[in-house]
């Protein structure tokens, strides 16, 4: 069984800030699936600990802290751990301005699904919608993108097309 080195990704500095992986080349690689739900939920719990320490952060993927595993966490209203997640249904589209812990200070306008259903190894199918919480719905898509090697820059809306200039 593949084991995760869960102690090496606590890269905190003296002031409680953390260094996240910000290399687009590294983040553009698809994460390996978790072998077991136990392994994934354990990692998810550690990711939630990290996420809770970050001001204004609402999501985190394992590869952002240097772990090659398909696990992400979201904490907008309640903590959510997703192990090997995939979006299985989607509809509607809307624009959303996103930021990312891996790229501090960058804000990107993206187009996202407004209603999604996510299947993961550790949960029943879960629905997310803009109507219930636009931030949570976008965050889930953003973190699953990380696991699939997609960054917010890959989802950026071309402003010229948006403004009808193309």
Strand segment count: 6
Gap from first CA to last CA: 52 Å
CATH architecture: Alpha-Beta Complex
Computed structural class: alpha+beta
Whole-number tally of structural domains? 1
> Over the alpha carbons, how many angstroms does the gyration radius reach?
16 Å
Overview of this structure, please?
The chain has 166 residues and is of the alpha+beta class. The protein has one domain (24-162): Peptide Deformylase (Alpha-Beta Complex). It is built from four helices and six strands. The strands form two sheets. It has a three-stranded antiparallel beta sheet, with helices on both faces. A three-stranded antiparallel beta sheet has the order 4-5-6. It is globular. Residues 1-15 have low confidence and may be disordered.
In short:
25% of the residues lie in helices and 28% in strands. With 166 residues, the protein is an alpha+beta fold. The chain has one domain (24-162): Peptide Deformylase.
SSE arrangement:
Blueprint: H1 24-27, H2 37-52, E1 59-61, E2 71-75, E3 79-83, E4 86-98, E5 108-120, E6 123-129, H3 130-147, H4 159-162
Antiparallel strand pairs: 1-2, 2-3, 4-5, 5-6
């Amino acid at each position: 069984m593949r084991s995760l080195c869960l102690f090496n990704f606590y890269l905190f500095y003296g002031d409680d800030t953390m260094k996240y992986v910000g290399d687009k080349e590294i983040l553009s690689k698809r994460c390996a699936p978790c072998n077991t739900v136990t392994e994934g939920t354990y990692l998810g719990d550690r990711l939630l600990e990290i996420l809770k320490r970050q001001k204004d952060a609402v999501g985190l993927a394992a590869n952002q802290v240097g772990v090659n595993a398909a696990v992400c966490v979201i904490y907008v209203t309640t903590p959510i751990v997703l192990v090997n997640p995939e979006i299985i249904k989607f509809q509607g589209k809307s624009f959303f301005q996103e930021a990312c812990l891996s790229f501090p200070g960058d804000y990107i306008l993206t187009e996202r699904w407004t209603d999604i259903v996510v299947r993961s190894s550790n949960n029943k199918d879960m629905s997310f919608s803009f109507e219930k919480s636009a931030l949570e719905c976008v965050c889930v898509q953003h973190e699953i993108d990380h696991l699939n090697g997609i960054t917010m820059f890959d989802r950026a809306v071309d402003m010229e097309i948006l403004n009808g200039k193309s």
